[in-house]
Amino acid sequence: MEKRQELYAGKAKSVFRTDDPDKMVLMFRDDTSAFDGKRIEQLDRKGMVNNKFNAFIMTKLQEAGIPTHFEALLSDNESLVKNLDMMPVECVVRNVAAGSLCRRLGVEEGITLTPPTFELFLKNDALGDPMINESHVESFGWAKADDLAKAKALTYKVNDVLKAIFAEGGMILVDYKLEFGLYKGEVLLGDEFSPDGCRLWDAQTKEKLDKDRFRQGLGGVIEAYEDVGRRIGIDFDA
Ligand code: TMP
Ligand code: ASP
């Protein structure tokens, strides 16, 4: 497999073509962004940590029967993935109230949500990733209704698998964002799962161990990501 020219540079990852049109290389950079790209900083080791974190989680999800684009870890900062036709929507499940839910609805951070909520956002930084609903997705052709239904069902299934993994490491999975795409007609989980796209709190102290440390200027961002990783059994030196 040969890595070819860069196709696209996102806020934290770059995507490269390979000599196989069905496969791409994801390169995880040290760039860390918040507030729809309005703030970007480089954090040492971040690319490596998120690449290995994502590889570990995608493998666990695949073992649990959730189809993902992940193929293989290629290096500290790169992974091989399937080339998906991405839906431009973000699927968010929340187990506990935090972030934009609290701002939008005026609810207190930390309230348990039973059942967990499911929300959709349009992937559009210029518009600030506005919240949308299922009918928007269909009317604007961002995805077919049955593909969106599959993505939604997979998003909930991910919750069962990951809540248990993080609970074993003494953490609460507060919320997370997933992105899906189509590969030869099948809906697969794409993008990444790392502490950049979820909220994780220590179960005892409620300490924030995710990108809110960066958003809120709490410091120790990558140290927290590594701590989360070690608590669920990731060896970042491997
Ligand atoms: P929110 O509280 O800002 O709506 O975010 C909910 C969760 O989804 C949180 O874990 C962060 C994640 N998320 C992203 O990673 N990127 C995004 O663009 C959005 C809208 C959410
Ligand atoms: N939307 C992501 C966040 O809230 C990334 C970004 O805003 O740049 O952190």
UniProtKB/TrEMBL annotation:
Assigned EC number: 6.3.2.6
GO biological process: 'de novo' IMP biosynthetic process; cobalamin biosynthetic process
Coiled coil (UniProt feature): none
Database matches in CDD domains: SAICAR_synt_PurC (cd01415)
Pfam families per UniProt: SAICAR_synt (PF01259)
Catalytic activity: 5-amino-1-(5-phospho-D-ribosyl)imidazole-4-carboxylate + L-aspartate + ATP = (2S)-2-[5-amino-1-(5-phospho-beta-D-ribosyl)imidazole-4-carboxamido]succinate + ADP + phosphate + 2 H(+)
Keyword terms: ATP-binding, Ligase, Nucleotide-binding, Purine biosynthesis
Keyword Ligase: yes
GO molecular function, one term: phosphoribosylaminoimidazolesuccinocarboxamide synthase activity
Matches recorded under Gene3D superfamilies: ATP-grasp fold, B domain, Phosphorylase Kinase, domain 1
SUPFAM superfamilies on file: SAICAR synthase-like (SSF56104)
UniProt-listed PROSITE patterns: SAICAR_SYNTHETASE_2
Pathway: Purine metabolism; IMP biosynthesis via de novo pathway; 5-amino-1-(5-phospho-D-ribosyl)imidazole-4-carboxamide from 5-amino-1-(5-phospho-D-ribosyl)imidazole-4-carboxylate: step 1/2
Annotated SAICAR synthetase/ADE2 N-terminal domain residues: 7-231
GO CC entries: cytosol
Family recorded in the similarity comment: Belongs to the SAICAR synthetase family.
Name under which the protein is recorded: Phosphoribosylaminoimidazole-succinocarboxamide synthase
Gene: purC
